[in-house]
Amino acid sequence: MKDLLHASAALCALSMVLCAGCAADKPGSESGAEKTGMESSVRQEILHGMAAYAPSVLEAAGEESFLSGTTEDKADVGAEVCHVLLSGSAAEEDAGGQDAEGPAGTGTVLTSPESGHPARQDPPDTGTVQTPEAADIVRIRDYIPDIQVDLKYATDDNFTGQVIYDFSDAWLRYGTVLKLEAAQKAAREHGMTLLCWDAFRPVSAQFRLWEAYPDSTYVANPNTGYSSHSRGNTVDITIVSSDGTAIEMPTGFDDFSSLADRDYSDCSQTAAGHARLLEQIMEEAGFKPYFGEWWHFSDTETYPVAAAPLEME
């Protein structure tokens, strides 16, 4: 705080020296030639120091008018700089040196007495995180912390018997996550919770799945198109009890048979009822179901095929 007071006083002194030296601007001054020869670098240094503490004053008067204006103009500017600097330093002393917003430590914005423009201050650290764009690919559990995730292709518990992913959490477009959050809320109202088996899928992983099972009924052919999973707006999902216990559904994940479709005439009434509840929850949240797989849902909002975000690597 003392350093700031010293700097303020020094800066005021410098600004007044400069303004006093400007008397040479007046016609007939005896020392006019000498004083108008003041080094421009000194003037610029003083101006730079002023700008660091009270740019609003210079902004109001204008740097050009300070350098080339009348003596009265320059004196007014110098006085305003000193007023702002010393007011700010005194305010900090009154505040007891406590941390607060603004250069004076008071949580207030200093202003030029005449211009009303705010003096420069560092932006407050609010600790807030910027809201992602709808197309940003984000980690689902960062926004739906109570959703269950069992990413099958991150383990060998899938139809290939191989670990396909080099990541272990589920990611989606932020816009899709918001819809999934609404679906999770609806599931909770039924005493259930969502369990995610798959979400965003890199294109490289799609090629590996196609090599393992080249049947376009169940695996999208990456040579002719892309899986909607690679667009970041599709989930393979089921519902479980609120404590994570599995409930009866038509089939398990990646059952490549007619039992996996949405006909439901070939499964128990209990399983059909659960599958229909899941379908209702997801459709009301803004997803459309795929007929061939009861667990597969895509956001009604489409996105282009995406590369994996750096955070996944």
Describe what you observe in this structure:
The structure is a single chain. This protein has 313 residues and is of the alpha+beta class. It folds into 2 domains: 2-94; 137-312, Muramoyl-pentapeptide Carboxypeptidase, domain 2 (2-Layer Sandwich). The chain is built from 9 helices and 7 strands, in the order H-H-H-H-H-H-E-E-E-H-E-H-E-H-E-E. The protein has helices spanning 2-21, 32-35, 40-53, 55-61, 63-68, 71-94, 174-189, 203-212, 269-285; strands spanning 137-139, 148-149, 171-173, 192-198, 234-241, 287-289, 296-299.
Strand/helix succession: HHHHHHEEEHEHEHEE
| Span between termini | 46 Å
CATH architecture of the largest domain: 2-Layer Sandwich
Q: Report the mean per-residue pLDDT as an integer.
A: 73
Morphology call? globular
Radius of gyration (Å): 34 Å
Indicate the structural class. alpha+beta
Count of extended strands: 7
**Largest sheet features:** 5 strands, mixed
Helix content percent band: 25-40%
Unreliable parts: 1-121
CATH top level label of the largest domain:
Alpha Beta
- Strand proportion: 5-15%
Number of domains: 2
Trace the largest sheet across and list its strands: 2-4-5-7-6
The CATH topology of the largest domain is Muramoyl-pentapeptide Carboxypeptidase, domain 2
Contiguous helical run count: 9
